[in-house]
Design goal:
16% of the residues lie in helices and 18% in strands. By secondary structure, it is α/β, with parallel strands linked by helices. The protein starts with 8 loop residues before the first strand and ends with a helix. Mean pLDDT is 86; it is low at 1-5 and 19-27.
C-alpha cells in the first residue's frame, strides 16, 4: 500500500501517529487521551461521516457507532455546532485510527473497500477510545509467541509490546483487537502462535468480546 501524502504514519497496521518521534511510545502516554464524561455519566463523542459513503455503507458505520450504547456509557452522536473535537470518519486508504482523543477533527479511516464490517468499525472506534491491539499487551509473551522470521522486513515494530493497562482482564484470543495468525507475514506462514496450545483459534472476532466490553467499561468507569 502506498500511503497518501497527507496520510498519517501508521503503526501496527492501523494506528495513526503524527510523527516518527511517537514510534516508541503510545501517544496517550504524553497527554490525557480519554474522552470526557458528561454530568449525566455518559461519554458523548461527536462524529461526522463523509458523504463518500453510500446509504448502505453509512448504515454499517452507524450500526457500529450505535452498538456501544447497548453495553457502555459511550454515546457516539452526530457533530453539532460548537463541537471542537470530533471523529471525522472518511474513506481513505485502509482502516486506521489514532489512539485516544487527539483534539479537533480526528481522522478515522474506514475505506469503502475492505473496512466496512461491524467488527472492523468497532476495532477502529476502540482505538479512538484509547485501546491498543491485544497482541501488544504487556503480558503478550505468556500467551502469544511471535515468529519474527516470518514477519515482513520493516514490519517488526508491529509486534512491539506496550506497557498496557489490562484492567484486570486476562489475555483474550477472541478480542476484536487481536490480529489474525498471519498478520504481516512475508511467506503465508504464521507470525503469531498461541502458547501453550498452538491450536487455539484467534483473530477471527466479528464483534467485541465480553472482555473488550469489560475493559471499556472499566477504563471509562461506566
Amino acid at each position: 500500500m502506498t500511503p497518501d501524502l497527507d496520510m498519517p504514519i501508521l503503526m501496527d497496521g492501523d494506528i495513526a501517529v503524527e510523527s516518527e518521534a511517537e514510534r516508541n511510545a503510545d501517544p496517550c502516554t504524553s497527554r490525557g487521551c480519554m474522552w470526557g464524561k458528561s454530568t449525566d455519566g455518559k461519554v458523548y463523542i461527536p462524529y461526522a461521516i463523509s458523504n463518500q459513503y453510500s446509504s448502505r455503507e453509512r448504515s454499517i458505520i452507524e450500526r457500529g457507532l450505535e452498538s456501544f450504547s447497548s453495553f457502555s456509557c459511550i454515546r457516539f452522536r452526530p457533530r453539532q455546532n460548537g463541537d471542537r473535537d470530533y471523529l471525522s470518519i472518511q474513506s481513505k486508504k485502509g482502516c486506521y485510527s489514532f489512539v485516544g482523543r487527539r483534539g479537533n477533527a480526528q481522522e478515522l479511516s474506514l475505506a469503502r473497500s475492505g473496512c466496512l464490517y461491524h467488527g472492523t468499525v468497532q476495532h477502529e472506534l476502540l482505538h479512538a477510545l484509547g485501546f491498543n491491539h491485544e497482541q501488544t499487551r504487556s503480558d503478550r509473551d505468556n500467551h502469544i509467541r511471535v515468529v519474527l522470521q516470518n514477519v515482513q522486513s520493516g514490519m517488526e515494530h508491529n509486534f512491539r509490546k506496550i506497557a498496557t493497562l489490562n484492567q484486570g482482564t486476562s489475555y483474550d484470543y477472541g478480542s476484536v483487537m487481536q490480529y489474525h495468525r498471519t498478520a504481516f507475514s512475508k511467506n503465508g506462514q504464521p507470525t503469531m502462535v498461541p502458547i501453550p496450545n498452538s491450536n487455539v483459534a484467534f483473530g477471527q472476532a466479528k464483534e467485541m468480546s465480553r472482555n473488550d466490553k469489560a475493559r471499556l467499561n472499566t477504563l471509562y468507569k461506566c
